[in-house]
Write a structure and sequence with these properties.
The chain has helices spanning 3-8, 30-33, 42-50, 53-77, 81-84, 107-110, 114-124, 213-220, 226-254, 256-278, 336-351, 359-362, 386-406, 474-480, 554-559, 568-574, 617-626, 631-636, 651-668, 672-680; strands at residues 88-94, 99-104, 137-140, 152-161, 164-174, 203-207, 210-211, 284-296, 299-312, 315-320, 365-369, 423-430, 436-439, 483-490, 506-512, 518-524, 546-550, 580-584, 588-593, 598-602. The protein is of the alpha+beta class.
Length: 712
């Protein structure tokens, strides 16, 4: 494991760390899920020995073009809201089930689609009642089988050439319903997996390149929106056909060994490049602690998700230890494989940026996720919001990776994490086109980027889980979903402050449509505690609870010709709209809303980078002029002095004020030993930490060391 790990890490006896915390069940093999790259086959070995360097480069670009074309095909054919805006993925896998080339959408989808392929290869191919043939079509969505949660659904097809299995192709993403008690799938109050809709670990739904009608009818009959579900499933199959056809054509041109060996070489060279980059970084132990304000049993409760990163030579070890135990009262329970795959969102986009995003990169990483815990939970629990726990690990990893990269040739990737203060609204009902719809909106894909080491984060830049997503057009969303978007804007004061500020997110304000109204449920976290840390002294991005205004007078004011500012900051501060205001936990069950009721949500802004007192006054002035911050933020947070007559920042007076703030900081400072002694006396109220575990270290009763999380 390495000298640093042996010195500082102590794994607890009786807990699971290197695979999921549940046993084998129908369609699910946890040991298989935990595999890295499969051994090189004889066919791959012959191809690797024969393929030239330039041929590998050409093949990689060709396969990437095939996957990216498939992504465009899938997004164009689908009528599912999330798919059309990029919450999806297409990938090309080796015959053994390892992802070699991806097109995204969502990176971590691909890292979760390998276990199901490996299961079919191991258990179904030799089974005479199933087998594996060219043109087979498989469906899967079970989180225990290696997936995300039941609402992310995927389809796969093996690729054969002259009787030889040479590859797999997959595509899929977030669907609008899973048949759970809550329209849209997400059930914020689910306590078991059986309250989250149907689960399919790996099932053949077609053969001979054709969907089986009985299987299509069965799946479509499980959901509220069968028309949308069937249309999207057919679009996925069409996408698989296209990928299959393109790959076969490439084999016809180049030969089986060339393509199969080239795919394996792409994986091995990605691993080699990642290890080469790691050797350029300083060895060290890096630690971050994230907290979550779970909606547990109908009330908020504090839970803990720490991450320790050991960087030694050419490898990384991620230890997720000291995690709060399972609470069995809600769906915020992750899985080992979800945590592993989720970190690819950071590693592929930032830490290993510029390297081919495939499974080879993760061969440099060992994952130790303590279980049973909320990060690595057992099988019977609800797992639908396990993404929130995995996101805490990912953002913790982002903080640690930035520290590891700071003194390296790759400092360009140093920045605060992308916003992931999840608060997702799912709208359901009959849309203007006359069919039932249930889905999220593209506003989820417009969160803020974290502040960078050399500049501000971008606003409304994309989805936490996928760097290549689109927020969609409001007019299109209005036609497909049973609501009407009144406002979509980048809001003021909705980001983390710092020397370089984080980017802000879009804020969407909508109302129900006409007499039928619409149904709404929501899910999320970060209602009181942000998931968007700043780094190097930067502020966190603010939390974002759910806001609903029932029976508002907004439409009456509009009909009367009145002008209402729909910025959330103004609505909250001035209460410029009358009605029944509800500021509440983001996880709420289904309710029906009427025209005039306002539904407000945002994915939150990114954290800041560096000390706020080091921000250039000119940058503060731009933020005030552009409406990114109010003047009182410039004065109270950044220490700026604004001339009352001109509205401009007085640079000399600002420097003087900041010098006074720094002196006051020093006056309040304490030696570390005194700080720790005082800190140990502090403890949240018992009701807040009812499901936290032992205090302050959830898994270690009586633990009293200064650096929590190191058990050595």
């Amino acid at each position: 494991m390495g000298e640093l790990f042996e010195r500082y890490a102590r794994l607890s006896e009786g807990l699971i760390y290197e695979r999921d915390a549940y046993e084998r069940r129908p369609g699910v093999d946890p040991e298989l899920i935990g595999h890295g790259l499969e051994p090189v086959t004889e066919l791959e070995r012959r191809g690797m020995d024969a393929v030239a360097e330039i041929d590998v480069e050409l093949l990689f670009h060709k396969l990437t073009a095939i996957a990216e074309e498939a992504r465009d095909v899938y997004m164009s054919l689908s009528i599912s809201e999330a798919i059309m805006t990029g919450d999806m993925n297409c990938g090309i896998f080796t015959a053994s089930g390892d992802p070699a080339v991806v097109a995204t959408g969502i990176y971590f989808h691909t890292m979760l689609n390998n276990a199901q392929l490996k299961y079919a290869k191991k258990y179904y191919e030799p089974d005479p009642t199933v087998g594996l043939s060219d043109g087979d079509i498989y469906f899967f969505n079970d989180e225990l089988g290696g997936g995300v949660h039941p609402f992310d659904m995927f389809t796969a097809m093996p690729v054969f050439f002259e009787g030889t299995h040479v590859a797999w192709v997959t595509c899929g993403g977030h669907q609008g319903d899973s048949g759970s008690p809550t329209p849209g799938g997400f059930n914020a109050k689910a306590r078991t997996r059986y309250e989250e809709g149907f689960h399919v670990p790996m099932m053949r739904i077609g053969d001979g390149f054709r969907l089986n009608q009985d299987m299509l009818d069965m799946l479509a009959g499980e959901v509220r929106n069968p028309f949308v579900f069937s249309a999207d499933l057919r679009s996925r199959v069409a996408t698989l056909f296209q990928m299959h056809r393109r790959i076969v054509r490439e084999i016809e041109r180049r030969g089986v060994e060339h393509v199969v060996g080239g795919m394996r070489t792409i994986l091995t060279r990605a691993e080699q490049a990642a290890r080469g980059r790691l050797r350029q970084l300083n060895d060290g132990v890096f630690r971050a602690v994230m907290f979550n304000d779970d909606d547990i049993g109908g009330s908020l409760g504090l839970t803990r998700i720490p991450v320790i990163l050991f960087k030694e030579d050419d490898s990384l070890t991620l230890l997720v230890q000291g995690v709060s135990p399972e609470n069995r009262l809600g769906p915020m329970h992750g899985t080992w494989h979800l945590v592993r795959a989720a970190t690819a969102v950071y590693l592929f986009s930032y830490f290993f940026r510029g390297l081919p995003p495939n499974a080879g990169l993760l061969e440099t990483c060992r994952y130790l996720v303590e279980g049973p815990s909320i990060a690595n939970a057992t099988d019977e629990l609800a797992h639908g919001m396990g993404t929130s726990i995995a996101a805490c690990v990912t953002n913790g990893c982002h903080v640690l990776g930035s520290k590891a990269l700071f003194a390296s040739p790759y400092r360009i990737a140093v920045q605060a994490p992308h916003s992931r203060n999840q608060n997702v609204f799912t709208f359901a009902g009959e849309n203007r086109r006359g069919y039932n719809s249930a889905n999220i909106t593209g506003t989820c894909n417009a969160a803020g980027q974290g502040g960078r080491f050399d500049g501000d984060g971008e606003s409304a830049i994309g989805f936490f889980w996928g760097p290549f997503t689109d927020a969609g057009e409001t007019e299109d969303m209005d036609s497909r979903l049973p609501h009407f978007v009144l406002s979509r804007a980048i809001d003021r004061n909705n980001h983390g402050y710092g020397k370089f500020r984080g980017g802000a997110s879009l804020v969407e304000i909508s109302t129900a449509c006409g007499d039928p109204g619409c149904f709404l449920n929501s899910w999320g976290s970060a209602d009181k505690i942000s998931h968007n840390p700043g780094i190097m002294g930067g502020y966190m991005g603010p939390p974002n609870p759910r806001i609903v205004i029932e029976g508002s007078d907004l439409l009456d004011k509009a009909r009367a010709g009145g002008d209402v500012d729909l910025h959330m900051a103004d609505l909250m501060a001035k209460r410029s709209v009358d009605g029944t205001w509800r500021i509440e936990s983001s996880g709420q069950p289904t309710e029906k809303f009427a025209e005039g009721d306002l539904m407000i949500f945002t994915m939150g802004g990114g954290g800041g980078y560096g000390d706020v007192l080091e921000r250039d006054p000119a940058a503060i002035q731009r933020d005030v002029d552009d409406g990114m911050i109010d003047p009182h933020i410039a004065e109270r947070v950044y220490g700026a002095v604004i001339d009352a007559e001109t509205g401009r920042i007085d640079r000399a007076a600002t420097e003087k004020k900041r010098a006074g703030i720094r002196r006051e900081r020093l006056r309040k400072a304490k030696p570390f030993d005194r700080f720790v002694a005082d800190w140990r006396k502090r403890r949240p109220k018992d009701r807040i930490i009812a499901y936290y575990g032992e205090w302050p270290e959830p898994r270690a009763p009586g633990y009293d060391k200064e650096f929590w999380g190191f058990y050595g």
